[in-house]
Amino acid sequence: MELWYTEKQTDNFGITAKITQTFVTEKTEFQDLAMIDTAEFGRMLVLDGMVMTTIRDEFVYHEMVAHPALFTHPNPEMVLVVGGGDGGVIREVLKHPKVKKAVLVEIDGKVIEYSKKYLPEIAGELDNPRVEVIVNDGYMHIHDHKATYDVIMVDSTEPVGPAVELFTKGFYQGIYDALREDGIFVAQTDNPWFKADLIQTVNRDVKEIFPIVRVYTANIPTYPSGLWTFTMGSKKYDPLQVDESAIPEIESKYYTPRLHKAAFVLPKFVEDLVK
Fold first, then answer.
1. Is 127 designated active site?
2. Which of 37, 57, 150, 155 is catalytic?
3. CATH class, range 3-54
4. Which residue ranges does the chain devote to CATH 2.30.140.10?
5. 22 is in an annotated binding site
6. Annotated binding residue at 155?
7. Of 96, 101, 140, 214, which is most buried, counting CB atoms within 10 Å of its CB?
8. Is 267 annotated as a binding-site member?
9. What is the pTM of this model?
10. Per the annotation, does 31 bind a ligand?
11. Rounded to the nearest 5°, which phi and psi values hold at 102?
């Protein structure tokens, strides 16, 4: 008998993967959590029926959340990651020697606990002395830390359950206030095939708050449609003005200095969404 996991990404479409082992299925205080092993993508974290990360393709998402913003800001000493309890974005943030402190605020401590146990390749830097891990509500942390951070990264699930507030205009305003005078923020903003309305709404809201707003994309095969967007809001620095020849090479599998600007070149139908 074969066991398969299916994520129903719309009412009429989903993706499926053959399961080789189930490690954890638990209803936490905030969401349904599963940690499984798959034949195609290796170990996989699933929250509320949605794939969050897999061993095989996790590097794309985590690198593309972290590096475009950190190579746009000239001195990102204080960095906040909201969500991201698997630790992948933190791992990438720590590749930047200018970062003196990285704060992770994850609402669900079980995500951190099980990621450390079953995804050590991803979560391995959560105990780094440059990292402070806080199990709390990221929305409230933003509200309570005015003018504190150089870069804020929102590594959230899709806008369901505890992540709903992380896609609101009030949250983006709170991020603006929590950033220093030349700060940058970046958030994952879903896919343009199934969530075009969400991308448009986020883009409109962020543009009403930040003077510089850019959208970029990456290919992540286990995420709905495979084409994923990220939205960057900046108070001062434009990622398109970065001298790519001055970007140092870092250990990576997806991000490169040449890709830095190329990622912001959007397919026409995505460009039309954010005009």
1. no
2. 155
3. mainly beta
4. 3-54
5. no
6. yes
7. 214
8. no
9. 0.95
10. yes
11. -120, 125
Structure tokens at 91: 């791992």
**Class of CATH domain 58-273:** alpha beta
- Residues of the chain within CATH 3.40.50.150 domain(s) are 58-273
Per-residue pLDDT of the chain (275 residues; tens, 9 = 90+): 899 999 999 999 999 999 999 999 999 999 999 999 999 999 999 999 999 999 999 999 999 999 999 999 999 999 999 999 999 999 999 999 999 999 999 999 999 999 999 999 999 999 999 999 999 999 999 999 999 999 999 998 665 555 566 668 889 999 999 999 999 999 999 999 999 999 999 999 999 999 999 999 999 999 999 999 999 999 999 999 999 999 999 999 999 999 999 999 999 999 999 98
Q: At what angle do helices 169-178 and 196-207 cross, to 10 degrees?
A: 40
Tell whether residue 115 is among the known ligand binding residues: no
Tokens of 118: 């079953």
